[in-house]
Amino acid sequence: MARIIAVANQKGGVGKTTTSVNLAASLAVSGKRVLLIDLDPQGNATTGSGVDKKATSRTVYQVLLGLGEVGGIRIVSESGKYDLLPANRELAGAEVELVDLPNREGRLKAALSSVEADYDFVLIDCPPSLSLLTINGLVAAREVLIPMQCEYYALEGLSDLVGTVKRVRANLNPALEIGGLLRTMYDPRNTLSQQVSAQLEQHFGNKVFKTLVPRNVRLAEAPSYGMAAVVWDRASKGAQAYLALAEEILAPATAA
Ligand code: ATP
Ligand code: MG
């Protein structure tokens, strides 16, 4: 059974896509079979995987609306060595079109059942909202990975997200668990970063990944080459952090 992980945080720009793309590539480096699903109309995970989103006519949009199957729409990210279910702006329309369809929250989950056996990991890059798209991601997943920046407002947003996860678990997907909180763009010299980071550990204990992703320019540059930083500059600090995260996810540490 594949591990299906939704990478979610309704706050924008916290590193969801960077995490999705680099974790997908890191797991592929470990020989895992990975499907990355771009569930964001921005299509950043698609571009970051080296795929031209504008030239892609069949995407996760068709899958959600029942106009195509994952098996016929997924493509290979040549740079990342994983499969990609791409997205582009067309997906923005799905939000409205899904509302009247049956099983509107569970359509991604239903569509995945036919391909799940092909993979060890399915990663879902969610958009920055708690919309029906994100709900589809959370219903399809068994774990939610929450990237967050260690800044003051991060904690406020977190309670909304945790509330949504609890509601999804109660009503739609009892199997859903918080897989972990990932500290991104971490700056160890910043006192507030350290404080928020310590608070997170206090509240969430071993749900906080030990791996800290530092602020690293290679992570920001790599998408313009259509590659994960893990592929483009594996020695960089950012890439090394995501490789370490993959190790942590592959061999979850037992609580000390
Ligand atoms: P959105 O909510 O818009 O989907 P997101 O949560 O997916 O955003 P990213 O796109 O991954 O966030 O990151 C936001 C910006 O920060 C991007 O320009 C990305 O390249 C950059 N970035 C992400 N992580 C890091 C990092 N650790 N160090 C430096 N830059 C980073
Ligand atoms: Mg994103």
How many structural domains can be distinguished in the coordinates?
A: 1
Helical run tally: 12
Low-confidence stretches: none
Radius of gyration: 17 Å
Structural class: alpha/beta
Strand-and-helix sequence, N→C? Answer: EHEHHHEEHHEHEHEHEHHH
Distance between the termini: 27 Å
Using the coordinates above, name the CATH class.
Alpha Beta
CATH topology: Rossmann fold
CATH superfamily membership: P-loop containing nucleotide triphosphate hydrolases
Question: What is the makeup of the main sheet?
Answer: 8 strands, mixed
Q: How do the strands of the widest beta sheet line up side by side? A: 3-4-2-5-1-6-7-8
Helical content stands at 40-55%
CATH architecture classification name: 3-Layer(aba) Sandwich
Q: Please indicate the percent range of residues in DSSP E strands (runs of 2 or more).
A: 15-25%
Please tell me what the overall shape is: globular
Question: Would you mind describing this structure in some detail?
Answer:
- The chain is α/β, with parallel strands linked by helices.
- Helix content is 41%, strand content 18%.
- The chain has one domain (3-251): P-loop containing nucleotide triphosphate hydrolases (Rossmann fold).
- It has helices at residues 16-29, 44-48, 60-65, 70-73, 94-98, 107-112, 132-140, 152-171, 191-204, 217-221, 229-232, 237-250; strands spanning 3-7, 34-38, 75-77, 82-85, 121-125, 143-149, 177-186, 208-214.
- It has an 8-stranded mixed beta sheet with strand order 3-4-2-5-1-6-7-8, sandwiched between helices.
- Helix 1 crosses helix 12.
- The structure holds adenosine-5'-triphosphate and magnesium ion.
- Adenosine-5'-triphosphate binds next to helix 1, strand 7 and helix 10.
- Adenosine-5'-triphosphate (ATP) is lined by residues 12-18, 40, 42, 44, 128, 184-185, 213, 215-216, 219-220, 238.
